[in-house]
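[Q] Does anyone have a clean structure-token version of this?
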Amino acid sequence: MRGAPENRLPEVRQTVASLARDTDVRMITPDKIVTRTFLGFDAKLDRLMLKGTQWMLPWVQAIAPIEAVNEQCEQPIPKPGVFSRTSRFGARWIDHLCRPPSDLALVGTLAWLRADLDAYICWDGEREQVSNILLPERPKAATWSTRLVATARVGDELQLPPGIRAAVLDGAAATRWIGAIEAPVVVAVLDRSVIDESADEVAMEYRANRGKKTLDLHRDFGLLSPPAGIEALAFTVTP
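[A] Here you go.
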């Protein structure tokens, strides 16, 4: 997050004027995030026409076209916490929620990933939920930034969607499938307290064969070191 480019959207009226009918959009209002299909704009009434709803344009804080909407969703606007505020997204939080980058994938056991995302991290007396920072893809989520990939699906030679720039493999079960993951940056999170070292060996072999540049979590990502007993191997991958 700290190294991502600033997300700056065009002015709302400029975007609305460029939208074609039946374009799926994500919209930010004063209190919610909405995904709907754009049907048109009534210039006389200054009203935005969406599938199933209408909005006066002055109430729209941000709007952007998105990929096809599977279902019409709404959710409250999350407030930026201590980590989000210090990222480059913090200065333009509304724009970030409207069109967040969707270039990160977390690979692992879904139940564990979701539990981690529901946890809080603290800094300088404040705390923020991990899901507020990563914006994971979830049912009924009107906005998302991070894809969650079940380890079981990786075994079926799952192809990560285009645009994924980094994949984080959480634990031994995910790391064993590192050869099936195609992403420019790979981070393997390993538990050194586990006696079974097969996943470690797979990750080290993959880094030796396809690793291009070793990355440092603190220097390259602005992250703190993992807790004792946990190691994160991060590196760029040769195509």
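[Q] Thanks! Anything notable?
[A] The two ends are 24 Å apart (CA to CA).
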